[in-house]
Amino acid sequence: MAEPLVLIDTVGAVRKLTLNRPTALNSFTAAMHRELRPALDAAADDATVRCIVITGAGRGFCAGQDLNDGDVGGDTANLIERVYKPLALRIASMPVPVIAMVNGVAAGAGANFALGCDLVIAAKSASFIQAFSKIGLIPDCGGTWLLPRLVGRAKAIGLAMSGDKLSAEDAERMGLIWRCVDDAALADQTMALATKLAAMPVKALAATRRTIDEAIMINYADALSLEARVQQQMSGQADFREGVAAFLEKRAPTFKDR
Known about the structure:
Layout: E1 6-11, E2 14-19, H1 30-45, E3 51-56, E4 60-62, H2 76-92, E5 98-102, E6 105-107, H3 109-115, E7 119-123, E8 127-129, H4 143-151, H5 153-162, E9 165-167, H6 168-173, E10 179-181, H7 186-198, H8 202-215, H9 220-235, H10 238-249
Parallel strand pairs: 2-3, 3-5, 4-6, 5-7, 6-8, 7-10
Antiparallel strand pairs: 1-2, 8-9
Helix pairs in contact: 1-2, 4-5, 8-9
């Protein structure tokens, strides 16, 4: 039997998904997508999963779309609508935090797939490349929306037009990613963060992501009203009652909502 294109491991409340085409720098194919989306859906539906880590096998995270994959053809619009839009929206709607553990090159759709996660931790040897301009395309997998919001218009256009390789250290400095760490520490630091998030009120963390993303597109007054509505919802949850009780009783809280 062929080896799975997405490896699935669970450590405690953390689900780890590993893109598994190391000889092709884990570039996306139709077959990989057919395993990745169900793996994400299964993690979303599993009440025992409270954080997700996504990484790549071997020396790369994901080199983007495999241009040798026969499923691409010439209809890129269809590919985006059929595959990459649902993938980006699935990440944005996960009920738990999602961490991209970038262990090597992240290029094209692979870079923007990582940037769409809640937190990106990258090894110092990793890099990010908006490779689209090199083949006459524009950023996809959410890149046109993510880049200017992460680093501003000037840097977004510079990264997208030049297609230059950006080191993980420079990515951290410009605010493109959450953190850059030594290669040897990447796995341990990522799992430590994932374990920490899994023990937190993950329903509130997912609501935080959703509210920040919505607030980007509205004015200040409407954002304040949005905060009020979401805060009202969160204050009715068991995690809020547990958090307050634990604070007053000077003990560690046990959060269970999802």
